[in-house]
Write a structure and sequence with these properties.
Layout lengths: L12 E2 L4 E2 L7 H12 L4 E5 L8 E7 L2 E7 L5 E5 L14 E3 L3 E2 L6 E2 L5 E3 L23 E5 L2 E5 L7 H17 L4 E3 L4 E5 L3 H6 L7 H4 L1 H6 L11 H4 L10 E5 L5 E5 L3 H9 L4 H6 L6 H12 L4 E4 L3 E3 L5 E7 L5 E10 L4 H12 L9 H13 L11 E2 L9 E2 L7 E4 L4 H15 L3 H7 L9
Antiparallel strand pairs: 1-2, 2-21, 3-12, 4-5, 4-7, 5-6, 8-9, 9-10, 11-12, 13-20, 14-20, 15-16, 15-23, 16-17, 17-18, 18-19, 19-20, 22-23
Helix pairs in contact: 1-12
This protein binds FE2/S2 (inorganic) cluster (FES) and fe (iii) ion (FE).
Length: about 450
């Protein structure tokens, strides 16, 4: 039961004191509305083009809780199709990825082309008397499918703005922070696991550098990233993953995109320069000096080391080796997917080292996410109680501290100590999405990024 369905969703997010009501983290009716007003409307990350390079390649993923097939049709065009036969609704694709000439429904045998068109119906002549209009019974296509620098997104809502407009400068920067590193490709095999938490708490955590020293204290003590004789990363050189807690940079974008975390300070830059041929530094940080990368990142992005989130649920890990989807599976369950990214020009040894480090950082076998998952599970449980729900959660750290600024008309950012600006911005945007009845209302009414020119 939705406690307060009759009030605007903005009433759950309290700007005056930086608090958020707990009800939004486990209520079924809130969750159902999120499926409709956020996931069925937003641009959702599907896959990287390197995962479906050839005609007939496909990758199965989700928009909200709905299974969709991302594929490349006979013309080489990207397609995203609802994985549900139009006859009785059966899934027409069961494999997580692969290559197909068409999608054959295993129930009665309707067959759909790579573009979703219905191309085969058993008994079409004898039982349907050729009166079934196949043109009308193809798979349901996404409203729009577009890609930005190889990252494929789809929206089910044809009224959505084009992808680049949706991403805006902050969303684009988030993707540039991976795309500009080199010839990036996604490694085969997506790591998937479920955690008993609300999807928003898993998103919220990616901006959270406050928890690192506590939640991950034991992981840091083990020196977990240093297997296989790897040298320490910049993060490991400079402390428990946080660098200087007083030198953080947050970027806030329209529709809820944000980037938050440590900033590359002049001291850190000098340390990176002095690292010489350290392969990790070469792999992880030198790319920033390439002219194309410099141009893409701009003045505000050049020093960003924090994690971007493309609203609603795509986390781009700031080390550039991993992407994560926080896929909702009910109000209190989230499926976490991890994609590992490498430069295709790496030597085999470098590639293995990069995959090894990724596998041992985030994901079900990583040292960090197990710590996090336990906390998110407990946080979610404590949003059920009738008493607990009377008391909101606090997102006010450093609220009001750190002025928004912009360099030469670039994206808005705030330089401050560790803070919760990224998290709270995301919840404000969440309320915008939930209160808006359609894209026209969302475009008109959403909270604008501070300093955005009128
Ligand atoms: Fe697909 Fe009948 S459900 S052919
Ligand atoms: Fe963590």
């Amino acid at each position: 039961m939705l406690q307060g369905a009759n009030k605007p969703f903005h009433d759950y997010v309290h700007v005056s004191d930086g608090t958020v009501d707990r009800v939004i983290f486990s209520d079924q009716a809130v969750y159902d509305m999120e499926m409709e007003r956020i996931f069925a409307r937003a641009w959702n990350f599907m896959c990287h083009e390197s995962q479906i390079p050839k005609v007939g390649d496909f990758f199965l993923t989700f928009i909200g809780e709905e299974s969709v097939i991302a594929t490349r049709d006979k013309k080489g065009e990207l397609q995203v199709l609802l994985n549900s036969c139009r006859h009785r609704g059966n899934a027409v694709c069961r494999a997580e990825s692969g290559n197909a000439r068409s999608f054959l429904c295993t129930y009665h045998g309707w067959t759909f082309g790579l573009d979703g068109k219905l191309i085969g119906v058993p008994g079409y002549k004898d039982f349907y008397h050729e009166q079934l209009n196949k043109e009308e019974w193809g798979l349901i296509p996404a409203g729009k499918v577009q890609s930005y620098k190889g990252f494929v997104f789809a929206t089910m809502d044809p009224e959505a703005p084009d992808l680049e407009d949706y991403l805006g400068p902050v969303g684009r920067l988030g993707l540039d922070l991976v795309a500009e590193r080199g010839d990036e490709v996604v490694v085969e095999g997506i790591q998937k696991s479920q955690i008993g938490c609300n999807w928003k708490l898993a998103v919220d955590n990616l901006f959270d550098w406050y928890h690192v020293g506590i939640s991950h204290a034991s992981a840091m003590m083990t020196g977990f990233g240093r297997g296989r004789n790897l040298p320490p990363t910049i993060a490991e050189r400079t402390g428990p993953g946080t660098s200087d807690p007083h030198a953080h940079r947050v970027l806030l974008g329209d529709y809820g995109h944000a980037i938050g975390g440590p900033r590359i300070t002049p001291e850190l830059r000098a340390m990176m320069a002095a690292a010489g041929d350290d392969p990790d530094v070469t792999l992880d940080e030198r790319w920033r000096d390439k002219p194309a990368a410099k141009a893409a990142l701009g003045a505000a992005g050049a020093d960003v080391r924090g994690h971007p989130n493309i609203f609603p649920n795509l986390w781009i890990a700031s080390n550039g080796t991993q992407l994560s989807l926080r896929l909702p599976k009910g109000p209190t369950t989230t499926e976490i997917w991890w994609f590992t990214i490498v430069d295709k020009n790496l030597t085999e040894e470098q590639r293995r080292a990069r995959v090894f480090r990724a596998n041992h950082t985030f994901g079900p076998a990583g040292m960090l996410e197990q710590d996090d998952g336990e906390n998110w599970d407990q946080s979610t449980r404590q949003t059920h109680g009738v008493v607990a729900r009377r008391f909101p959660l606090h997102f006010g750290m450093n609220l009001g501290h750190g002025a928004p600024q912009s360099i030469d008309g670039g994206p808005t950012f705030i330089d401050a100590a560790i803070n919760e600006h990224g998290q709270f911005w995301t919840y404000r945007a969440w309320a915008d999405w939930m209160d808006a009845e359609n894209w026209a209302a969302l475009k008109r009414d959403h909270v604008r990024t501070p300093l955005t020119p009128a």
